[in-house]
Write a structure and sequence with these properties.
2 copies of one chain form a homodimer. With 422 residues, chain A is an alpha/beta fold. Chain A is built from 15 helices and 19 strands. Chain A folds into 3 domains: 4-128, NAD(P)-binding Rossmann-like Domain (Rossmann fold), CATH 3.40.50; 135-298 and 319-336, Dihydrodipicolinate Reductase, domain 2, CATH 3.30.360.10; 339-421, Alpha-Beta Plaits. Chain A is elongated, with a radius of gyration of 24 Å.
Chain lengths: 422, 422
Amino acid sequence: MKTRGIGVIGGGVVGSGVVKILRERAPALTRAAGPFELIGVAVRDLGRPREGIAPELCTSVDALLADPRLDLLVEVAGGVDAPFQWVSRALEAGKTVVTANKALLAERAEAMFALAQAHPGKLFFEAAVAGGIPIIAALDRGLAANRVVAVQGILNGTCNDLLSRMERTGCTFEAALAAAQAAGFAEADPTLDISGGDTAHKLAVLATLALERPINSAQIFTEGIAGITAFDLAWAEQHGYRIKLLGIGRFSEGHVELRVHPTLIARTRLLSQVMDELNAVQVEGDLSGPQLYSGRGAGQLPTASAVVSDVLQALRGESLLRARPVPREPPRQVPMGEVVSRHYVHLEVIDQPGVVAAVARALADSKISIASMFQPDVAHGSQVPLVFTTHPAPDAPVQAALDAIEKQSFLAGAPVRIRFEQ
Amino acid sequence: MKTRGIGVIGGGVVGSGVVKILRERAPALTRAAGPFELIGVAVRDLGRPREGIAPELCTSVDALLADPRLDLLVEVAGGVDAPFQWVSRALEAGKTVVTANKALLAERAEAMFALAQAHPGKLFFEAAVAGGIPIIAALDRGLAANRVVAVQGILNGTCNDLLSRMERTGCTFEAALAAAQAAGFAEADPTLDISGGDTAHKLAVLATLALERPINSAQIFTEGIAGITAFDLAWAEQHGYRIKLLGIGRFSEGHVELRVHPTLIARTRLLSQVMDELNAVQVEGDLSGPQLYSGRGAGQLPTASAVVSDVLQALRGESLLRARPVPREPPRQVPMGEVVSRHYVHLEVIDQPGVVAAVARALADSKISIASMFQPDVAHGSQVPLVFTTHPAPDAPVQAALDAIEKQSFLAGAPVRIRFEQ
């Protein structure tokens, strides 16, 4: 059998993990998938030595893409615009591409999947979602006979770590972030994580498989976790819930619902028990019923191990089943305003006559039915939390009520609104 | 592309589910894997009409195996000896086989995998373990780059349902079994489930993949759940544990540990939170770290959906990576007597002078270190539970101490011994 040439773009943490596995496990990998050769690793700075990557392997992207031995390109560089150019060139030249780049897949979904469809090379991306958890294999193969009905994922380890820290210690979001940064569980600039953007990227990839149609993350309603307070976590604990940032997709005949936001999940659900930096995805197939997959969503070796599992599939000449457009009417995307949930709202108010009446009036005006309301007894005139939960209601009127409440002079801060997830 | 002929042996619950999915989803399945045709369903009684299976499809095993159109045999009949003959004939004739039959794989492991190895047809068995949960795909593909270090599985829905019922209601094992039988969660003859035998079958299949070497379930130490009492579940709850029947495999360089028995698992672990009839498998890859997969482990459509996912892989000409012997020294199987755990022991004793001294003496004679001991205050001479836990100790001396204790006249029943699982 012909020896296939593998080129890697990216000599960082994941790239050097991939190189290490391909080198150290070559005999077992060859036995599983046939002979291969690592022909080069494209790095930004050719002068800088890299741990675990032989200097003579280091090369430039252009040299790697021009190498006639190249059969399979592994892209683990990160970014969107430059990787899109590289991956496009490789696919157009008939090469197979393995990428861990969720932003690339999610922000260039249409173009990426069209390119893969139009050329003989294949596209693999197991490592793009939930690191070492084989969620792509589960959706694509394990559930191949199923229609995917729903996914709910804890897809960002940083957010899950922050919420777990806040719950454990009762600290503020800011303190949890500082501690997570010190412990290496949060980036120096954590914006993409805490804004929900990274979760939206991963949800877009899962939805692309579930719908067999490219989904761009720009289509996804996205809300982050920076507004969550220690009070909200304590309320959740007292009432039998946990707060998790979820990427949620629901797929029914002709309708699709996609959203990323903090949720209240009952502690009786397995998904609520996934703590710290771990990831988990609940997937519901129409035949299989709900299933949960949990594990490490990041880290050098878990991610590199997912990349190498794709490399093996690629070397064996296999391809994904669901990662290509299916000729079918596009489903209607349900706008966020129409999505129905129960809501938790936490207001900080100055205790004065008429506060509860004004809040209740705003809700009544929007036809929102109150399920519970709570305000502790405090000295008149001090700041106090006022919490209410609603019966199931569409998002738009709840938002309208919150907008009306926000105009009130008794409000001492931005409302916290968290949707319950059944 | 040539239309491939699929034959099914078994017209029962799973078989009719497979037929239903192949019929109702033919367009999507064909798009994914190419054209196929269901050529026949071998049933025991040709005269009896079957829901969802057209009478003209019903045939005999011999006619099905002799049909020149047969490319792919689906075996969902159950049993061991007869299916072994059928599957052997099919493999020897170069056909590919998809089976859901864990007993067949586990009790004829060596022969089954040798047959698959020696002939051009492939062998698939996703549905044999944990029903609709794609655990075979996860081990074989998702974790293809990993060495599997450990598996711990809740692999029998009946046992998990019984233990969940006992915990929830405080009832006896016998009452839980009667209720589960009435609710359809336990067979009329539940022996294979509650003895741990079914779990051992499934563990053997998982170990075969993990070790890349056929493992027979007869090699597995197996203990069931019939001895567990309501007292033990209450003790576990009070001390932060749950009792689960686990199939446990640990795989290290040169050593393998395989066992099925009730375990005490800390409630902080996700695996302990898997309740009722659900299954779950925790798998640890040396690169990926621990991962948990959970979902329905039985039922018509979850199981049939796993069978059809195998059918699709087979139609696409793929094969499992790990399901064939690897040329390598066989690992040493650690005898149960050498397996080290912490132990919980519950004795029912007649309260009289010298009981604690005799128990402590038996443990000391076996060099077992007591971690905790508890006996409630009762009227002298009545029956009372005496509970102790040990520090980590090998199984053999703990068993020797229990044998010595069993000879004592103050014992009012068989000791309950449960191993802790870290």
